[in-house]
Amino acid sequence: ANLDGATKHDINLEQEQKKLTEEIFIERFIDETKKNGFIYSNKDLVNFHTAMKISNLVILSGMSGTGKSRLVDFYRRALGIPEERAEIIPVRSSWTDDSDLIGYVDLMHMVYRPGDSGLVNILIDASKNRDQLYIVCFDEMNLARVEHYFSQFLSLLETDINRRYLKLYNDELEPRLYNSAYYPPSVRIDDNVIFVGTVNMDESTYHFSDKVLDRANVISLVVRPFAELKALKEGKSDDDKKDP
């Protein structure tokens, strides 16, 4: 009976410690946004953190100027992830297939040329450091058709984590490419990489298909009243006056 009691106590203690850790992080996350002069709904911040923990892809939706891209950066800072392990990729309206995102094989010079987005380089780095966390953000994700340039990723998001490999080029080309030592035919995408996208819903963007929405967790940011921002600034001014 004592052993069972101790076991239950240890389990409850562990649960409380995890809860405390989560609460401390959420407070740090909220403080990070406020000290930079941004006001988000606490509910949105909690939902965003929860989605980032359980989803393969999180999409932040909202009006232009609601601070979607900045929110990703605040989250990175709250987690203590250095800038070199985070990549914000501005999506271009001209992207039509995944070669615009990940690159292609230059058969004339026999080299693999990665896309200038920087995605392949950070994924390779993440595959070599699986004990470290990375964040990849696709900014204004729906400026181009996601189903086109993101097609390979949409398939990978449904694949078992142990079989999740991004195909860069065919295996038979590897011995012939000069830079294949750094750019292998495929790159493993482990669970140490978090993918997030930001979207604006207006006449300049494309709507998501069911195929995309089925693989993502979409969070719509609430626009906060300007009065709250004014109150925050006034509060900061009052605090400044109290400082010696």
How would you describe this structure in keywords?
244 residues, alpha/beta, five-stranded parallel β-sheet, two-stranded antiparallel ribbon, 9 helices, 9 strands
Q: What does the model show?
A:
With 244 residues, the chain is α/β, with parallel strands linked by helices. The chain has helices at residues 2-35, 42-54, 68-79, 99-102, 119-128, 146-149, 151-156, 210-213, 226-242, and strands at residues 57-61, 86-90, 103-106, 111-114, 134-139, 165-167, 186-188, 193-199, 217-220. The termini are far apart.
Side-by-side strand order of the widest sheet: 2-5-8-1-9
Major sheet size, sense and barrel closure: 5 strands, parallel
Taking the alpha carbons of the first and last residues, their distance comes to: 59 Å
Radius of gyration: 21 Å
**Residue runs with pLDDT of under 50 for 5 or more positions:** 237-244
Write the layout of secondary structure elements.
Blueprint: H1 2-35, H2 42-54, E1 57-61, H3 68-79, E2 86-90, H4 99-102, E3 103-106, E4 111-114, H5 119-128, E5 134-139, H6 146-149, H7 151-156, E6 165-167, E7 186-188, E8 193-199, H8 210-213, E9 217-220, H9 226-242
Parallel strand pairs: 1-8, 1-9, 2-5, 5-8
Antiparallel strand pairs: 3-4, 6-7
Helix pairs in contact: 1-3
Give the gist of this structure.
With 244 residues, this protein is α/β, with parallel strands linked by helices.
